[in-house]
Amino acid sequence: MSAFIRRQPGTAGSRTPLDLGTRPGLHGQVLISTGLAGLDRLLGGGLPLGSILLLLEDSNSQQHLNLMKCFMAEGVCCKHSVAWVTAQQLTPDSTAAFLPDQARSGSSSISQPAQQVSSTTSSAGTAAAGGSAAAPDDGLKIAWQYRKYIQSQQRAEPVAPDKSRTSSSNSSSTQASSSKSSSSSSSSAAKNVAAGIGREWCRQYDLTKGLTPAQLAGTKFTTCCCTSRSEGSGAVAAAGAAAAGFVQRFQPSGPIPIPSQDPGSIGRLVIQSLGSPDWWPSSSSSSSSSLAGMEAGILCALADLRLQIQDATCAALVMCPAELFSESFQARLQHLADAVLRIQCLADNTDVYRLLPDASSASALLEVRRLPHLGLLRQRHIEDQLYLIRHKRRSISISVLDLLPLEAVEQQQGAAEAAKKEAPVKAVV
Predict the structure, then answer these.
(1) CATH number at residue 83
(2) pTM of the entire structure?
(3) Structural domain of 176
(4) Higher pLDDT residue, 159 or 8?
């Protein structure tokens, strides 16, 4: 009796691998997308699992909310388990309206999730076999080999008077070739999905269009409201306990954990504006003792979170208005995070704003203070420390800060002043 078993097409080993919304990193890391292509490139491809991204807010800018929206919306689209810890009272309607929908026409991404590459290529093969008269510029996502095959068939189609003889042979040959090409392309697409090549990564979102409660109902999205009335040592301690309970669900169950095929086994934790006035008790004053107690509570909660999340299949985004606290607290807070970014307000009367190309869409500056270095012996070198956040009507983008030469700006200002001086002269004439 042979010890080998032939693998059948319907067995579990031959199934198309699931897309968990992750991607392998360069140093043995598992990355997840932040929902912004520019932020993924800044972090080295994405945010590694088991890391904490600390985002220092600016009171004059609200761009940290947009970054948080994209991070949570990407987790919802990837069917990850998302937890939102905040000090504000939330309702199902307000929670769904806060999350942006995908920036594309047609049905929503939450109600109808994106298909895998294998299903896309199989539908493309059916379309290529069914009708060769389809134009190359239609909305179908056809691989380039199918497009080339259709174009060659259209050019080489003979204009014969007797079409009855050639119709059956052409149809049979077309179906045979399309079936072979579709089977080969589907197998190659499945291999690409398994390797993380053909997966949909970092979707685009429309910040002006929110979700509905029905779209968010079937997802693994939870909220935790930790107000100042929380029992125990306060709202910060309650937030730390809620975060610890969420992260424990994604810790390995044994010394050799078995990787799960469920996208819900990937966790995303978001703590909004930790230490803001919403987290303070209503009876507390702004004395030095209460401020020191709040700083100690935040440091303790973040230290416990980093200790628990380092071995879990989960990543955390923690936002904090550090400008409300002392400089020593800011320095200690940054040592408890794997990546640290700070948002700086961009005023209209600054020299940086004056030297920017297309300054009308510039919204804020993003300072890189630390990059994730999991799997490395030392911290990564920061090549570009300042980035620019551009906020257009429907989306935001992050790019390296590039300034125009000072001479070009002076020439533009001189031309504008000359045009203003010539305008009243022409009016008088």
Answers:
(1) 3.40.50.300
(2) 0.72
(3) 117-195
(4) 159
